[in-house]
Each structure stands twice: as C-alpha cells, then as structure tokens.
Amino acid sequence: MVRAPEGISKEESSLLSYLKDGSKRSMEEVCKALGIDQSAASSYVEGLEKLGYISIQRSKQYSIKVTEEGKEDIKEGFPEERLIGIIAKSGELKISGSIDSIALGWARKNGWIAVENGNLKLTGSGKSAVGKGYPYRELLGRLENEEDRLRIEKLIREEKDRIGELMKRGLAEIKERNPISSISITDEGKKLLGSKAEEMITSLSRDIIKSDIWKSRKFKSYDVSDPTERAYPARMHPSHRFFNYIRSVFSSMGFSEVEGPIINNAFWNFDALFSPQDHPTRDMQDTFFLSNPKEIDISDLGVLSRVRRMHKKGWNGAWKESIAKQALLRTHNTVVSVKNILKYGGLEESAYPVKLFSLGKVFRNESIDYKHLNELNQLDGIIIGNSLTLSNLIFTMREFYSYLGIDVKFKPSYFPFVEPGMEGYYYNKEHNDNIELFGGGIIRKEITKAMGTSKTVLAWGMGLDRMMFDYVETSSLSEIYRNQVGWLRNFRYKKSM
Amino acid sequence: MAVVTFALGDVEKRISKEKFVELAERIGMEIEEITDKDISIDITPNRPDLLDYNGLVRALSYISGKLKPDKDAYKLKEGTALRIKVSADVKKVRPYIAAMVVKNIDLSGNRLKYLMDFSEKLSDTYGRKRRKLALGIHNLDRIDASEGLVYGASSEGRIMPLGGTKEMSFSEVMEENRKGIQYKNTIANKAGLVPFLSDSKNVLSVIPMINSEITKVTESTRSLLVDITGTDMKTVNDTANIFACSFIDMGAEVYQCEIDYGKGQVITPSPEYREIRMRLYKMEASLGINIDNAAAIELGEKMGYPGAQYGNSVLFYVPPYRIDVLNEQDITEDIAISYGYNNIIPEPIFHPIAPSYPSQITKLRDFVANVALGHGFIEEVNQVLTNEETNFTSMGASKFDKDRIIRIAYSKTENATMLRTDVLPSLLKSLSISTSEPLPQKVFEVGETFSINSGRVFENISLAMATEHSKATFAEIKSVAESIMGSLGLEYAIKEGKNPSFIEGRCAAIEVSGETVGFFGEIHPAVLNNFKIEEPVAALELILIKDIKY
Fold first, then answer.
1. Do A240 and B369 touch (CB under 8 A)?
2. Containing domain of residue B201, as a range?
3. DSSP E strand stretches across A117-227
4. pLDDT digits (tens, 9 = 90+) for A235-249
C-alpha cells in the first residue's frame, strides 16, 4: 500500500537518497553509507518497503542453533561424560533405575563402559575419555560460538553426522533465516524524492510535548488497519451481574435483603415449614444430608415445642426430634424466610408491612447435566403484615415480572407451607410452552402460629439460574459456572439490565 | 408428584381433549403429555383422590358445572359383609387394616387397569412406597369368608403368588419373587414376622408384597374384597373412604367390613361428609375478593362441596375423598381456584415510604469485587460443592483433618463430597481448563467457604485472586494484596507464611489483630503440575468475614 509522501522520517529520506541511482545495494553498504547499525537500518528498510518506496530481495540461509538444553550440556558436560565421571570416582556403579538411560546408551555406544556382575565399569577407552575433550561437546560449543557464521554447506562429512546426532538428541536445531541480500528504490520512491523531505515525529515524548517541536513538525501517520494485540476486559461474572439486577428490582419495590446460613438442620428446612417427616423430598436421594456435622441442635425450645405440636396435630401422629436435628444443605431459601417470620413477627404495628427477600445458593442431590445443577440460586421473598391478600401477592408478582418484560399468569399449585398455593408462569413462544416462574402463596396459619405471630405472610420463591438464559448467551447452565477464562472474556449479553 | 395416564378414547367419550386440558389446569394439575392414544397428567401430592380416573372425571365434572355435588352421594349398602380378626403378632409390625366388599362392579374395558394403576400410584406416593400404606384387591368369589378372615403375622406360611405356578414359603417370596424382593424391607423386623391376610383355607396375600393367584381379579370379576393395611389408622381408614367413593361412582355396591382389633371393633369404610363453617369476611380478607353467600356456595359446588347458608356464614360439606382438607384455609384455596386466580384483581399494598437495604454480605461482595475488577481480574463464581482431591490433595495439602470439614453423607455425583474450605482451588481449576487462552490470565472470586470445629459450623466469605503469566511473581500479588487490605481499611501485618500450596520462602501470611486471615505468594510448581498449569501463578486467599453472624 502506498502512503502519502509526507509519511517518512529524516533517516528514511537519506536512505532513499542513497538509493536514488537505482542500483542494488547490500545491507552492509547501506549501514556504511548512512553510518548506522544493522538493526536501525533494518527497521528503516522494512518500513520503507511497507510504504512501497523500496523493494527488498531476500536469500534463504540455514544455520544451526544450540537449544537451551544443549547450552546446559555445554556448561555441565554431556550426561554420558557425567556418568563416566561418577564411575571413575567409585570404580564401579550398580545398575539401577535411577541411572539416566540416555547417558547409559551413549556411554555404551562410545565403548566407554562394560557390565560386570550387574555393575558398570569403565573400559580402557572409557578411562582415557574421563576429563578429556568430548568431540560432541566441542562441536556443540563451536556451534554456539559461530552460530550465524557457520554454514552447514561448509562442514565436513563427519561433523555433519555428529550434528545429525545432536539434533536427534534435541541439543541443536536448524534455523531458517531470510537475510536481506539487496535493496533498490522503486518508482514510487523516486517520485517521493522529488518532494522535499521533512523531519517528522515518530513517537511522542515528554520532550516534544514540553518544547515547541510539535508545532513545526508533522506526525508520522500509522496504518490504522495494522493488527494489534487483543485486549480483554476484567468483567463481573454474569450471574453476579444478573443477581444484582434482580436485587435492584426488588429493592426498588421496597424490599430489603436478608441472609441466612446454607447449613441448616431439617427442623428449619422442613419441619418448620410443615413438611411431614416421611415426605419423599426428605429422602437422601433428593437432599444433601451431612455426615459432618450429622446433627444440629434446635436451640429455640419454644419454637421446637410449637412445631412439634403443629406436626402432631396436622400430620396426626409421630414426630421425632432426632429426624428434625439432621444436618443438611438448604434445599430452598424458604428456610431463610421462615426464620425471618420468627424474627419480624412481633414488631410494633407501625413497622408493618415488612418486605424482605433473600438470594443465595440452594442444593439438590441431582445428577448433573446441561439443564440440571446440584447447586442452584434462588430468591425467596416474604411480606409480613396485617390484612394481606392473595390479590396483593398477585399484584407484587405482576409488578416484578412486568419490569422484566414478562406477562405472568397464575394458576393453583401445591406446596405444603402455603394455602392457597399458586404458581406463576408465562407462555414462551420459542418453546411453545408454559414456563414456570415462581411458586408461592399465603403461609399456612399453622406455621405463622408456630413462629409466634398472628400476622399474615405472603411468600414466594423463584429459581434464578434458568432466567439467565434470557440475558446471557450460553449453551448450558454448567457453562456459566465452569469459568473457562475464554468464555468469561467473550460471552455476550442478550439483553441490557 | 405422580403422573397418571388415561386412554384418550375414554376421556373423549365425556369431554373434548381441549376442554379436559383446560379444566385440569384450572384445578391446578399439569398436563404432562398427550399422545395419539393417551393423556398423562401430573397430580400434586395433596390430592391422592385425583390419581383415580373416576376421581378426576368427578372433579372435572364439578368444575365444568355438569355435575352438582350431593351430600348423600356416597351411601353404603346395609350390613357388614364380613369380619376380619387382627392378630396380636401383626400389631407389632403393621397394626392397622381397613376393608370393604364391592359387589356388582363392572371392570371391563380399561376399568380394571385404572383401578390397579390407582392402587399402585397411591401406595407409592401417599403410602410412601407401601411402607405406610398398601392395598390388596381380591376376587371375593374365591374367598371362603364363612369363618371370617385373619389379618396376622408369622415367620412361616405359604402362598401361591400372583402369576406363579407353585406354592412358595414366605421366605421364598422375599428371596425370589420380584415384588417380594422389592418391598420386603418395608416390614423388616427382628422377629421375622411377615403380615398376611388369610381365609379359612388359604393365605390371600403376603403384605405389602404380593397377592395370591387364587383370588386374582380379571375384567370379568364382579365382586371384590379390598383390604388396606398400614402403620397409621387414620391413613388406612381415609384411604378406604377414597376407594369406597370411587367404587360407588363406578356404579357398584359397597359393603362395610368389621375389623376386630381384640380390644374394640372398627367398621370400615365410613365415607361421610364433614362440615366446615366458613366465615366469608375471613375468606374475602384472605383472597382480596368480594363475594356474597350465594356466590360462595356456587363456587364451592364447582369444587365438589355441597353448601348451605348458616346464619351469617356458609356451611361447606367436605366430601369423604378430600382427605387433604384440614380447615378453613383449605376451603379458601378451593374457592380461589373455583373463582380463577387470573380473575382476582391485583391490589397494591399501601404503606408509608421506607428505605430498603441491601444485605451486609452483598455490600461487601460488591465492594471487594469492584476493587478486584479495577486491578484487571476477571470475576468467577464457582460451586462450593467440591471434593478432598481438589480442595486439599491437589493443593499440596496431603494431610488434612477430616473432622474440620463439612462432609456430605451421600451424593449422586462423586465430585461432590464436601464444601470447600478455600476459594483458591476453584480458581486454579478454572485456569487449568483455560490453558489455550492468551496470557496473562487474572481471575478472582468472592464466595462462601466452610469449616467446622468441635461441632460448631463456620460459614465464611473469602476472596481469592490468581494471576498466571510467564512473569507472575510474589511482588505482583503482594501489591494487589496490600491494595485490597488498604481499601478495606484494615490494620494488617505481613509475615513470613507457611502454606503447602506456595513455594517456601515466597509465601506471606496476612495478619489482622494477630490472627492469620490469609496467604499470598507464588504457587508451588508441584501444585501447578497437579492442575496441569504450565506458567507461573501468583495468588492470594483471604477470609473477608469469618463466621457470618446471620
């Protein structure tokens, strides 16, 4: 690509002048004529070539380079040299797995060692090789010193063979070089020489900014299409960002956020929520029970006796404290809600309604696939107050989902801790199906009574992970929590939030 | 939840497929699948009566208005049909039984299949896989009831099992018969007692495993003996009532049986309507709707409750099959269902303006995440379920105290055996699956960590950061660590640290008030090897909140 003529520096301009008669020149000649070193000359020459003012002819050359391992061996000696050094000191060496097999192989090949009764001993030539110059090492040393000047074509046969062995051992490798053989000016370059060469600013510096140089000189311009290194942003995890968005919506509706422990006993997770002790969800197959700790004591004895009474009456019969003490990972955040009914059930009248939500991890003992995780995120909300109605809950849920642009519908459903119970869903065009959004209802009187309050409590719970599919471009839930750095750098948001 | 399947042909004799779906969803049941032949529907666990084809048809007929409830609908025939003596032995293992005799029943078409499915599903869900409750359905004509029946328990006895060709001993049933193997653990007891039902000649069933081939029921059977056994008398009797209603709805005659418990007699079934008095203002206050008595009665009828005005309130008669209805709240829900949830007008809650607050943990997490992001670290959110291999062994901690970690008793996936004690292993795991990505890679996570000491559980919030590239050093992570500590406003000291995950002499401990709260330094190459990470990593692990006070 030919650039505007003003795009070259003073040095580049002198180089063009030197080439103006049209003859081909070598790099050595260029350096000498301009009084600059090889690396500076290369950068001017390559820059001008890119701009199309000169053309470069290159040749192909092969040279041999010593590898890092080879350099070490030059310093430390080859393994076989070290091996015979060790044998020479002790006279013999027992064969064992700890001897380097490469050293052993080469010492044998060189005829330096022999085996006697399972021990290694030096042969005559071995003894004389100790401490003497080793042709392989000397050759490798020469390669290191003469690197660029040494040409394969000029080596004798024996040396070529040895180099072959060194390369096999990974101590040397062939390097291809394309040095510049000659340089000549192009027609574009000749044209440019006609216009007056200017001094230009290549890189901006403190000196240039502070002085007035920038007022009198032009800036060398860049090729804006030149590729640059990719930059990656430090980003928030999409789940953190999404959950904060959900938090902000509830917060805008007047809800405060509360937290509760992940590790609970069955008492709070199940019994306090009126789930009968023989209910199938309390099975090992669905819930993560713990082996350490096995049990967690029920510290509030008043609640304990009221919950016991609730079960004995409601489920007509046995209720065992030992079953309620079993330690587990919470299966829903309703456990946080019920604890807060206890905490906020007896405030001054003016404090109501109390509006709370909790957002955090819940656990299900599930087999994992692209849709199912055993560690999920849930939001649970409650409103505690006087004369609250199902109609109030419907209003609250409708407001929340309309903020997200979702037209929520309601239908009856069953959860042991609410009555009436409901489920929210919406019709998804893409799947031609109703997608569940939340479950909720009015907390049963039996439960609020056991928590020591006469208030009405509206409650709901919603899974948050699947909702992320609408916001984050991903193929699966597990991808979001796998944290592959490339994915974290490059994933896209589908919707703003 | 339990899924029941009915033939589309049977359903469509009464009602269109579309109407069936609409009505079923209106009463809160979800359609699972519709094929050319069948319709499958998901029944919530509070409504065992709907696992029955007759029960579901009944409920849909009420809600559509086709059928009006009648509190005299479930009348039994006069007289007790037979007597069952309960032995002392069976009281030790499975003490309760209810039974009924059914005559003039038509089991042709799919009727027998629906009856068996109902019995199976109910025993599985409401009966907790037959442990709490199980049913036996017998051909009455093959039973010699002249001297009554015996509900007993014994370690010895013989039966010709259903589908079998030879008699087996009880122990053979439990070792060889498919149902025997499946359900024997539900009655396991030290004495080896196995419950059974017998007439004067034969054992009719080994409970709750298998019936006898002798009393096998077919589509042409016209008379039945139905027994319901279990560990709880109310459950057993309630179930008998549900079935009695179903048989009567099928047009059959149901007779009671006398259960002789020795100390007293119980007559089963007794399908009676219960009265619940509803105060309308309470119901209105709970649902946020306005209805008068007449409207309430009409709404109740659509859910199968006959109703009558009673002073200022309404009396609802709860059908015997509605064993889930405990009190006013439950009727209120059914009135709401009848009214239609989507017909309820949403009403806002009025209250004074008050500020809302984020949680302390959310505030801290956001604050620390912002600082870490500012340092160019990408945020991760990892699972807290992990295993000893990732959390300890790979981190160079070959010895660890099992009593100090939160351990899972049983997990379906083997990679979840405990809760993580540190966040850093999660970060190294993510770097290990990202080796093809350009360097530097800088990651962090603020998340939950867990431990336990002498039975006391600690839930903490920790921060970990890791930087991977060819020049990642102690100095780099130290600068970041000091910046984090500074922005948290904490007085801290940096001391020489000892931690097997880091190179010795290149690890520092962070102390606050003399207590070590974290480590940072260069990760040991052995640890990098374990995670197959090929470039140097410098990292930090810091407890932000130790032992969260909720």
1. yes
2. 80-268
3. 119-122, 172-177, 180-185, 200-201, 218-219
4. 999 999 999 999 999
